[in-house]
Amino acid sequence: MPYFETADGTRLSYEDYGAGAPIVFVSSWALSSDMWEYQVPFFAERGYRCVLFDRRGHGRSDRPSTGYDTDTRADDLAALIEHLDLREVTLVGHSAGGGEVARYLARHGEDRVARVAFVAAVLPFLKLTDDNPGGVPEALSEATVARFQKDRPKWFADRAQGFFATHLGNDVSPALIDLTMRQCLEASPWATTAVWREMFSADHRDALRAMTVPTLIVHGAADQSARVELTGRRTAELMPNAVYKEYPTAGHGLYVTHRDQLNADILELIKG
After folding, report:
1. Which of 12, 128, 149, 264 could disulfide-link to 135, CB 3.0 to 4.6 Å?
2. Which residue is catalytic, options 58, 219, 252, 258?
3. Where would I find the AB hydrolase-1 domain in this sequence (predicted)?
């Protein structure tokens, strides 16, 4: 398993498959690069280079006590891209990974990036403030933190069916759901809390308005983790030149339940 080192000496695990134009997959909060098992073979077999990494505190990467702020996590992504000297990159970010992609572009520019796909991304800004009256009160976010700090396995288990929107007929086996929950629990409890709080409070509105690279926004109408009216639709409003696709029966785990449709849409973005 290869590693690269960030500016503060943290060692992060990454994987590199295939050859051709690079696609960098940025994982969800609490999940690792293993979540992309239905995307990597699809793109590698079609002549693309697929690069994945585990953010700090997740998967096989180091578990430092610091560096979970959005700026540092975006800089970690930059360190990976620079370590491999990737250019003309397609960035694909799911959930919190979408926020890291947006902050990467705000801090490091678009020189190495050809296009972006935001998949069920927690954008543009969740927190209730005077200039974000439709946001979520911080007290509600902290109540959620308290619940998963009390019993983290139960918190994830209680949301497993909703994560995949199985109530809408999405066929996900109990074994696959169990695997996803185990992957979530592999993240350090410290990182789980720290990244959640950062994800909730990060304001990406200016970064999204400033983006000029071709962008795809994909969101599930039944997403219970990042409600579409707070995230996907608002992101699309800030980016009128982006392609916005809303999947009527998809939840947050659309990278599994709607893998064929998602892969085809990302491929269309790349070829377009």
Report:
1. 128
2. 252
3. 22-258
User: CA distances (Å), 193 to each of 80, 158, 187, in order?
Assistant: 24, 18, 10
Ordered mean pLDDT values, 10 residues apiece, the chain (272 residues): 95 98 98 98 98 98 98 98 98 98 98 98 97 96 96 96 97 96 97 98 98 98 97 98 98 98 98 94
* Active-site pick, 32, 61, 223, 258: 223
Assigned CATH topology for domain 3-271:
Rossmann fold (3.40.50)
- Would you call 95 a catalytic residue per the annotation? yes
Close Cβ partners of 135 (under 8 Å, ≥ 6 residues apart): 125, 126, 127, 128, 129, 230
The residues with which 24 forms a beta bridge, in sequence order, are 51, 91
Question: Quick check: is 252 catalytic?
Answer: yes
Catalytic residue among 27, 95, 141, 188, which? 95
